Each structure stands twice: as structure tokens, then as C-alpha cells.
Amino acid sequence: MVSMVARNGRHLQRYSTLGRRQVVGCIPYRYDGAKLEVLVISSQRKGKGMLFPKGGWEMDESIREAALRETVEEAGVKGIVEVGSSPSEKLGQWSFKSKGNDAYYEGHMFPLYVMEQLEFWPEKHIRQRVWMSVSEAKEACQHWWMIEALDKLVVREEAKPGKSNL
After folding, report:
1. pTM, to two decimals
2. Nearest Cα to 52, choosing from 65, 38, 37, 63?
3. 5 lies in a domain?
4. Nearest 5°: phi and psi at 97?
5. Which residue has the higher pLDDT, 2 or 140?
6. Buried b (16+ CB within 10 A) or exposed e, 134-154
7. CATH number for the domain harbouring residue 147
8. Which of 20, 34, 49, 115 would staple 79 via disulfide (CB 3.0–4.6 Å)?
9. Strands of the chain, DSSP E
């Protein structure tokens, strides 16, 4: 059962030892035949481009739970968050400055193989979602660190048997 209400507030928010807010997200992906496609969502701020779902990692959840929650809330998809004990399963960790203020954040991104696309989700009325090719997503995405995460996803997928030339 998916909650139809997005979490809000920062009272349970995690911060790094440097005092940076920790955010987690996913790059939702699927294959259309042999072609890799990724799901991007619109920013909540008008005219601020597209991005991958991400948001705050809270004290009462694991990093995997936070990544999946944010992806369901913002993009309305469910799937397999590919995370485990190996650091190679996470696409990476980045330190970045917010575009809206002077705060620095610590961002963690994971691949999410999409198994289900929901008709209704908490942020349906404030975000658009669009499946794109990797090259289209690189053009549309507004965050350099998310583009780096996408590059890592492509390398990871190309390394899988039978998945060359994405």
C-alpha cells in the first residue's frame, strides 16, 4: 500500500558530520527492447528543468527505504532499489550546493529497476514524469551530480552480460 501523502518537515532529517543535509534518490530505469530509458520528473519550481527523484533521508528509515519512498512520492514508480552491502551498488555520493540557497548537501543516488508505474501518487498534481533516452535526460537534467550518477548507471548497465551499446 502506497501512502498518498508525502512526508514533510525536517525534524527527523539526517545530517552528515559536516552538517550537510543528507538526501537520497534513484534513477528509475527500464528497457524498451534493448534501449535503456530513464524516468525524469519536473522540478517543483516552475521553469527549473527536470531531475531524478530525491529528497531527505530521515532518522527512522534506512537509506534504501528513503530512496524508495522519495521515488514513489515524487515519480510514482516502484521497483527494485539496487543497493546492498557493496559500495559499487550505489551509483555514488556527491557534495553539492543548493541552487535555491547557500546550503551544501550530501547526495546519494541508486539505480531503481522499475517494476510498476502507479496511476496515482502523492506528488502527481505538482510534478510531471517523462521517460527519456539517456542522451535526452542528460540534456534535460538540471543537476551536474545527477548527470554523473546517470553516467555511472550507463557504465554499470553496459557491463552486464548482453547489454552492450546502450
Report:
1. 0.86
2. 38
3. no
4. -95, 135
5. 140
6. beebeeebebebbbebbebbb
7. 3.90.79.10
8. 115
9. 21-32, 35-42, 50-51, 54-56, 77-81, 92-97, 104-117, 129-133
Calculate Rg over the CA atoms of the chain: 15
Taking a C-beta distance cutoff of 8 angstroms, is the pair 41, 125 a contact?
no
Structural domains counted in the chain: 1
- Residue 9, domain member (yes or no): no
* Domain assignment of residue 57, yes or no: yes
Give ∠ CA 77-21-2 in degrees, rounded to 5.
25
Neighbours of 100 (CB within 10 A): 8
Structural domain of 92: 15-159
pLDDT-based confidence at residue 16 (cuts at 50, 70, 90)? confident
